[in-house]
Amino acid sequence: MRRLLQLLAFVPFSVFGATLPNSWTDVELVGMTAVGEIYTAFLTGKESGRYPRLQQMRAGQSDRGVEVVAVNPHEGSVSLRQDGKLSVLRLGSSLLRPQTKLGAEGVAIRFERVDKDTVLELLAEFSNRTVLRDPRLPYPDFAIETGAVSKADAIRVIGDALIEKGVKLVPEGEKFLLAVPAASQVEPLPPLSNGAPLAISTAAASEADAPIYQKDGLRLQNLDVYDLLDKIYAETTGRTLLLAPALPAAKITLRAVTPLTKGEFTHMLECVLALNGIKLVPEGDKFMLVVPTSFPLDRLPPLTRPAANPQGDPIYQKDGLRLQGLDVREFIAKIYAPAAGREVRVGNFPMAKISFTNKTPLTRAEFLYACERLLQLNAIALKPVDDNAWEAAREPISFRAAPSPSSPNANSNHP
């Protein structure tokens, strides 16, 4: 047996039909485009022998052991080199007729089997608009053929193909396109006013005229929505996010095809979040509530403590407190109670996790406001037990009208 194992150690992987990591197999040609004299082949295959992959490649480019040697639009063929061997793949028909030459603004498309994301990315490139995608879009394959046409004609053909497959395009300003299910109603989106959305504070709005991203300066591929909120949106707006539990799970894919100012970039992110069922509600200049669109914000009990209270020195500088999935009981005992200067007894309520990063300096009053809002969003109320202690207990968000801050029922006993 030992001798057999020693012999097997020298047998090449290929004998067993295994696939080397990151290799590309079963490569097929499924589409081709011409933009002027730039020719692009659309290839599919399996990465590591298992994972479907579609890649756009031009002559001289290589990926995972596959090199494109030449793209011939008049023959509808692409020459590849893989494992030292040359091969030729062909479409069912040529992209361009023999002797046809495109001008600088001419384009041609022949897709025999490509996915929705590929079509939307090409639409963004031709229309010079960033496409913002609804997560409910269908997942059909597309077959599109234009012949030699102008970009405007190609955009119309792509739009017709999308409609036929159940995808509607809705312009949003001058730089964006919404791609939504054809049968759906587009919900009202965050407004864009003078390049600065409502989510940007007055101080930030003055900077909104200078581009912060150039053309193709931002590309997101299946980015988790929590990373989008924390690492991109909060950093850009400078606002501390107060997250409700159970935000819709979402993966964000987009490519910014135009320069974007801070205001346009923020507006784009807010539209993407709205399309994914997430609502953003500013509170004061420093905070932003992040909730599912169905969340009954108008039923939240009011806080008598103001969202903006600059009195006193900051107890946390920017990024001074970062919590990631902290148990709510530990949050109350170790974070909130010491800042409030009171004992807080924890009642019986379901487990909840608190995530929080302050993006501005916070005074004690501002920090306590954020803590109390976070607890409210998690259906936890603070109630006085006696002069020295409070109780944190579950209080489901009521669908009754909340009392106004001036109401005698409004709680005014905050520490």
Structure notes:
The chain has helices at 2-8, 116-127, 151-164, 202-205, 225-237, 262-275, 328-340, 364-377; strands at 24-35, 38-47, 51-57, 62-63, 66-72, 77-82, 85-90, 106-115, 130-133, 141-145, 149-150, 167-172, 176-181, 192-193, 196-197, 211-213, 218-224, 240-243, 251-256, 260-261, 278-283, 287-292, 314-316, 322-327, 343-346, 353-357, 362-363, 380-384, 389-394. Helix 2 (116-127) runs antiparallel to helix 3 (151-164), helix 5 packs antiparallel against helix 6 and helix 7 packs antiparallel against helix 8. It starts with a helix and ends in a 21-residue tail after the last strand. Strands 1, 2, 3, 8, 10 and 11 form a six-stranded antiparallel beta sheet that branches. Strands 4-5-6-7 form a four-stranded antiparallel beta sheet, with no helix packed on it. Strands 9-13-12 form a three-stranded mixed beta sheet, with helices on both faces. The chain is of the alpha+beta class and 415 residues long. It has four domains: 18-104, no CATH class; 111-186, Ribosomal Protein S8, Chain: A, domain 1; 197-290, Phage tail protein beta-alpha-beta fold (3-Layer(bab) Sandwich), CATH 3.55.50.30; 296-394, 3-Layer(bab) Sandwich (Phage tail protein beta-alpha-beta fold), CATH 3.55.50.
CATH architecture of the largest domain: 3-Layer(bab) Sandwich
CATH fold label of the largest domain: Phage tail protein beta-alpha-beta fold
CATH domain class name of the largest domain: Alpha Beta
Uncertain runs are 1-20, 193-206, 399-415
Query: Helical residue percent?
Result: 10-25%
What fraction strand? 35-45%
Mean pLDDT: 84
Radius of gyration equals 28 Å
Separation of the first and last Cα atoms? 76 Å
